[in-house]
Amino acid sequence: MAYSQAIPAQTPAEIRAAETAVALRVKRRNAVTATLTGAALAFVAAKWYGARFSPLAFAGGLFGGLLYANAFEYVLHRFLLHWGESFLVQSHGLHHDTAGAPDEARYVNFATSPLVVILIFLLNAPAAFAAESALHANLAPGMLAGFTIYYILYEEIHWRFHMGGWLPRWMAAARRHHLLHHGGFEDRYNVFLPLFDWIFSRRTWRRQPPQPR
To answer: How far apart are the C-alpha atoms of 48 and 136, rounded to whole Å?
Structure first.
């Protein structure tokens, strides 16, 4: 009996289940890494600038961090993941090419290694430190917390858009927005909070067909 006959091939359902199990572990590891890295950077910022906790300053920094993260997501997705033929573009292309395929889960998470998560945080932390150096308003810890929250929400919501899972009804429009991006429509680079998409691309949306259900 040939080797290919002795070991039956996995069915699409079995492949999907195996890939999903691995990707779920990666997603949980990414969330833990993001939480620890964000907390460590916020602690360093507080110590470095001698910041004292202020609910108002923290709230302002939190809002600034969420806004910055949304802008970072837009710029990264538009200019580094969809422009040219770089390694990042090709890697992101696998996410698009496998949508609905048995191995889809493998390419849904933003990062496959905690080192990538740490690198993303280290590359973006200077924005919070720069804001603090310029304004001296105790914003850095809140900004880093906001960036951390956004990253975790991004991975979790993006996962549920593709792989299923409970989402509040008001997020149905955000899911349609993201799936249109996968359908080849222009723009729509923010995944679940299309703020910068709205700022830069709302005229493009009006020229395109209605969103699918």
So the answer is: 12
